[in-house]
Amino acid sequence: MPSLIRLLVILGILGGIGYGTLWAFANLVKPQMREMSVVVPPDRFAK
């Protein structure tokens, strides 16, 4: 039984670290905004 509890504790800690990492990436990392330009061929307008 102690080995089962140890396994569950280790899995819980790893899951908490993974969840914390995803939370940090989602909330603390801001994407850089930049302009985009796309060339559309004239034959696409004829349809």
UniProtKB/TrEMBL annotation:
Transmembrane intervals: 6-26
Keywords on record: Membrane, Transmembrane, Transmembrane helix
Name this protein carries in UniProt: Histidine kinase
Organism in which the protein naturally occurs: Ancylobacter aquaticus
